[in-house]
Protein: Fructokinase
Organism: Roseibaca calidilacus
Amino acid sequence: MILCCGEALIDMLPRETASGEAAFAPYPGGAVFNTAIALGRLGVAAGFFCPMSDDLFGERLRAALDDAGVTHALSPAVDRPCTLAFVTLTGGQAQYAFYDTGTALRDMTLAELPVLDDSVRALFFGGISLVGDPCGAGFATLCAHAGDRVVMLDPNIRPGFIRDEAACRARLDAMLARADIVKVSDEDLHWLMGAGDVAELAQGLRAKGPKLVIVTEGAKGARAFHAGGMAQAAASPVKVVDTVGAGDTFNAGFLAALDDAGYLRGDAVAGLSDEALKAALSLGAKAAAVTVSRAGANPPRRDEL
């Protein structure tokens, strides 16, 4: 299976009551959690790791994983509250306010890390789980002990959530050196590498260790940079409701395509052809297009594509 390692939280999404008052409704979420759900809905053998609260929110998270066919056997139930992310939308673009002190995610201990067996063929890391401590140190430790498994990383940079930029950059550099595949938005790429041409910056990021760097650029589509050059795929045209979960779904579509074709091996990732990369980028884009066409992080099932 592909084991997705990172945050599970509750997105408090903006709604309006029958009387017209502003309100928030709770939905299972988190960048890495969304990717796990999307993988499960696409029919990929997927697992999820993150300590989850033993309260009513934790029950919602586990129920959502069960519904998508994602195993969470490696995720301990803990007596700590769930992280909450209050979401506001401006022109369909999501902004987040996180409440994360003392939570199941944030206070994860090294003792809660899973033991990886032969059922885990690939690992996915990303999101806010890599920023704070002690959880960030824990996920970085798990990444460092991935063995010869394929590792994909989506740093999903949220500058407003980062309190110690130097420490965050050092952690990401260590994980970039281990990752086989890295997916960044163009905004993430500029935060990591500075100003400049996207293609040059992406190849500079690849020089840090990854075999493959994917850059998503919204309506402009996505490009994959590798040792042999660059492959690209256009975005699927769609009426955008909101962008919640778009990048997370793209990650799942890309991994699903590699899994379908038997490419989730380290040596295979290094030698992917432009044709195989374009097919994987295209599936990621198609899956993300469905997600942005409806409210919230609601990834498609395979028969919807």
Summary: The radius of gyration is 18 Å. The longest strand covers residues 9-16.
